[in-house]
Amino acid sequence: MSTVDESEFPAPVWSHDEPRIAGATDVGVVRTVNQDAFGRFDDAERSEILLVVADGLGGHRGGEVASQMAVELLGRGVFEGQADPASRLRAAIQHANEEIYRASLDDTSLDGMGTTVVCLLLAEEGPSHVAHVGDSRLYRLRAGRIGSLTEDHSLVATLVREGVLSEEAARDDPRRNQILLALGVRPDTEIDVAPVELAPGDIYLLCSDGLHGMLDDATILTLARRPTRPDDVVQKLIAAANDAGGTDNVTVVLAQLPDPMPVDPLPVDKLRALATRWLDSTRALLSGAKEPERDSDRTDADAQRDDSER
User: Where do the structural domains in the chain lie, given as residue ranges?
Assistant: First the structure.
């Protein structure tokens, strides 16, 4: 298993509230070659963090080469130029597509290779963005719920969206691994790019179909909803996918945004004292009397006057 956790990225990229990030990839139970790849890339000047997961396809060697090329090319390309984040993401993915396609033409052993890709560009200022091609996914966990921020570019997912197949039937459909879009298969490709609004406490999970093909969303939510350490959650998710059959390579990258700092509550005795004082003041005002005098408000002169009156 190849792993990366937040301890390997000691230099802060954001000025505050930087997400905790971990990732890992595993060959699975059935396969002998891992064609998945993942990476994290930082741009400190822009305060941006790029997370990438790619799932290669096309022969014993081709898929492994394609996914690694995609990750490396995106890691360099997304931070080039002065365009807006969405445009930089789209341009970098299109460039990666062209380079992978060209490599498959130059080397006959790589003929037909390609790869899916999903990227999350986390920005400290302004909206973050997700971009993807294929059936690798980005999930968001928020307020105890899970939802996918990407739509699979696959035959079965399209049939589900069109109402031809139910979600339940899709999980066992023999065509579920047939993807409609991938990098490197044609000279150009369609790319989905969308903004992502971050919120404190959000958890973002990028994964290949080796995870979401083995575990349903409810199981992923149960395992990932309250991570104490992101790397522990990543390992648990991969182990669960393998326990469920592990028929494919599985890759998971998780980013956890910190929760807002809680406000320390007032001690119970202070709350009770404040409530009593407020009630006493309210009664005094309603009755037209003076507010009860507290011992702490009495002066020495008050005390001497009381003594002389006795």
Answer: 2-256, 268-309
What residues have CB less than 8 Å from 269, skipping those under 6 apart? none
- Whether the predicted model's global pTM rises above the 0.85 cut: no
235-261 tens-digit pLDDT: 999 999 999 999 999 999 999 999 875
In the chain, helix, strand, coil percent, each to 5? 35, 25, 40
- d(C-alpha 239, C-alpha 266), whole Å: 43
To 10 degrees, what angle do helices 85-106 and 62-77 make?
150
What is the maximal distance between C-alpha atoms in the chain? 113
The answer to whether the CB of 185 falls within 8 A of the CB of 114 is yes
Q: In this structure, which long-range contacts are made by residues 106-112, counting pairs with CB atoms below 8 Å and at least 24 apart in sequence? A: 109/59, 109/61, 109/62, 110/58, 110/59, 110/61, 110/62, 110/65, 110/66, 111/58, 111/59, 111/62, 112/58, 112/59, 112/62, 112/185
Strand pairing class (128-133; 192-196)? antiparallel
Q: Which two tokens stand for residue 255?
A: 């980013």
2-256 placed in CATH 3.40.50.1440: no
Question: CB under 8 Å to 235, separation ≥6 — which residues?
Answer: 3, 24
**73-92, pLDDT tens digit by residue?**
999 999 999 999 999 999 99
50 neighbors 78 (Cβ within 8 angstroms): yes
